[in-house]
Amino acid sequence: MKTRYVQVGIGGRSYMFSDAIVHKFPAYGELVAICDINPGRMMVRNRRFAEGDPVFPDYPKVPPVMTYAADEFDLMLRKEKPDTVIVTTMDSWHDYYVVRALEAGCDVICEKPLTIDAHRLQDIIDAVNRTGKRLRVTFNCRYSPVRSRVKELIREGIIGDILSVDFCWNLNVRHGADYFRRWHRHKGNSGGLLVHKATHHFDLANWWLEAVPVEVFCKGHRRFYTPEQAERYGLTNRKERCLECPEKEKCAFHLDLSGNPGLRELYLEQEGYDGYYRDRCVFSPDMDIEDSMNAVVTYDSGAVMSYALNAFTPWEGYSISFNGNKGRLEHNCVESIYINGDGQVPGELLRKGTSIVVHPHFGEQYSVPVPEAKGGHGGGDEPLLADLFDPSAPEDPLKRAAGLGDGACSILIGIAANESMRTGVPVRISDLVTEVPVPSWRK
Length: 443
Ligand SMILES: NC(=O)c1ccc[n+]([C@@H]2O[C@H](COP(=O)([O-])OP(=O)(O)OC[C@H]3O[C@@H](n4cnc5c(N)ncnc54)[C@H](O)[C@@H]3O)[C@@H](O)[C@H]2O)c1
Prior knowledge:
Layout lengths: L2 E6 L5 H11 L4 E8 L2 H13 L14 E4 L3 H8 L3 E4 L6 H10 L3 E4 L7 H14 L3 E3 L7 H11 L6 E11 L2 H4 L8 H4 L2 H4 L1 H12 L3 E9 L5 H6 L28 H6 L4 H4 L17 E8 L4 E10 L3 E8 L2 E9 L13 E12 L5 E3 L7 H4 L1 H9 L14 H20 L3 E2 L15
Parallel strand pairs: 1-2, 1-4, 2-3, 4-5, 5-6, 7-10
Antiparallel strand pairs: 7-11, 8-9, 8-15, 9-10, 11-12, 12-13, 13-14
Helix pairs in contact: 4-5, 5-16, 6-10, 10-16
This protein binds nicotinamide-adenine-dinucleotide.
């Protein structure tokens, strides 16, 4: 029998999941309904089903699905009787829908970050424990072939036991800036970049190390996306959104929502329903997230990680070095430039700049071939979808399917980092929730 899916949150990211069910794995599942606070975005989704998708002209036309307003979510569960609920809303609403879906007897697939603070996470932990239903968190980055290769090398013991990690992630002035235009600019919506974005990075680190975080110390600030920076650029007459800004010719950060068909259809033309502007000025004082963050994370394995995240760099990607008792593994990665929902492949790895180099103690350094990777998020999106929606997919030796423990351990680092920035002292992970759930790779 086919798995019945419903999906809540029908914005930019949602398409990957609904498309996968409808167009890539129709033999195994069906999307029976969608739900959102914005009826316009649901209409766009159904129009693409019924009239064909201009981005993917090979997709056949399919019948539209039932739509439900956000306050009809429970009604949708009662009427449509889904097996699994897919949660792709704004981050601060994940907990609400995850808990209600679990309580209704459904399994849940939730986009990262699982949620944004400790209180909401506790509610999710309690609901999973109470109901025994399955919760998956979609850590697509794990599935990227190059990151899987790094995992294999570490597991093979090529550098021995890992004692320390240097991890530096750069978000550039295109993609990084975009977080300061959208709902992400408020911690109440996203948890800030240490939760919203770094959940990917902390999950990778936890999974690579196969270790659980113990304590976090962090400092951070926002000094680039500020009114002062706009003045340094000579943007003296800026407005609070790009659409009506007289400085658009001069501003390198100007976003033309009307000029991109995807952004126009999904956001500009749907503003009338919810008043959500996707092109807020990146130099506005009306935001409370950091653009530069430095953290130190200790692990139960004894490893210590120094982590830096900057959201205003000239190029996008990361470098990570693992220092082991037999040598050092250095992995660098450069990603393509995009902004969410603009129709381009998001976060594709660029071969030039992506590398794995092993430095054995007292030996010659050597490069490890980087596997081929196509598609979004370092080639991770497609294998993730197969793992989620194809029941015949073979068992995964790398245990990339992430659940409650994986989702929790990654955001707990960001939540602790937020608390540490606020209080100025290190924060113990075990003080944030009653019991830290066990990640899948430790079961
Ligand atoms: N894994 C990845 O690589 C990746 C990439 C992009 C986004 N995401 C995640 O996907 C989720 C959605 O992000 P997006 O980029 O699509 O954002 P978006 O703004 O394009 O879409 C969010 C959608 O949620 C809806 N929504 C907001 N509040 C709601 C509520 N209370 N009830 C129902 N619907 C509500 C909005 O109307 C909108 O349609 C986020 O959690 C984000 O972190 C993950």
